[in-house]
Specification:
This protein is of the alpha+beta class. It is 34% helix and 22% strand. The protein has one domain: Alpha-Beta Plaits (2-Layer Sandwich). A three-stranded antiparallel sheet has the order 1-3-2.
């Protein structure tokens, strides 16, 4: 599966919430692995969210509905 950039969350916790929201709507989503620092706890740094190629428009619409 080829991933494409969707958006940047302000922190890891927000990215994880958005990831779960998208997954609950049937859209696979991952946090860019280089952005999450799990061994230090939850990162307060911005985290990029990725979705499968071609699903970004639908994913952004879902996030927009819940913001």
């Amino acid at each position: 599966m080829k991933w494409e950039y969707l958006t940047t969350a302000p922190d890891q916790l927000t990215a994880e919430i958005w990831q779960q929201l998208l997954q609950s709507e049937g859209i696979p989503a991952v946090i860019e692995p280089r952005d999450a620092v799990s061994f230090l706890g939850v990162s307060a740094m911005p985290c990029r969210l990725m979705v499968p190629e071609g699903l970004a428009k639908e994913a952004l619409a879902i996030l927009g509905e819940h913001s």
